[in-house]
Design goal:
The protein is an alpha+beta fold and about 70 residues long. Helices cover about 15% and strands about 40% of the residues. It contains one helix and three strands; from the N terminus they run ββαβ. It has one helix at about 35-50; strands spanning about 10-20, 25-30, 60-70. The protein has a three-stranded antiparallel β-sheet with strand order 2-1-3, covered by helices on one side. The longest helix is centred in the middle third of the chain and has 12 residues, at about 35-50. The mean pLDDT is about 90.
């Protein structure tokens, strides 16, 4: 996306629900200033595959902002 739109910048914030094994159970977009939904969705799909540290009990919910700039 950055090759097609080098001016692309902004912040996308996601809310992730993490499983006890560290996998992402659910991810939602909280906010975005990129004005480019296809880019936001691409980042979201990549983050969905991430693994975090194992959680001792239950699930965890975190919000993570990603800032992109030129």
């Amino acid at each position: 996306y950055r090759k097609k739109r080098p001016e692309l910048s902004g912040t996308v914030t996601f809310r992730l629900t993490l499983n006890p094994d560290g996998g992402v159970a659910e991810i939602t977009t909280v906010s975005s200033t990129t004005e480019f939904k296809a880019f936001d969705d691409s980042v979201k799909n990549a983050v969905k595959r991430w693994r975090f540290q194992k959680i001792e009990k239950g699930k965890a919910i975190v919000e993570i902002p990603f800032t992109f700039s030129m």
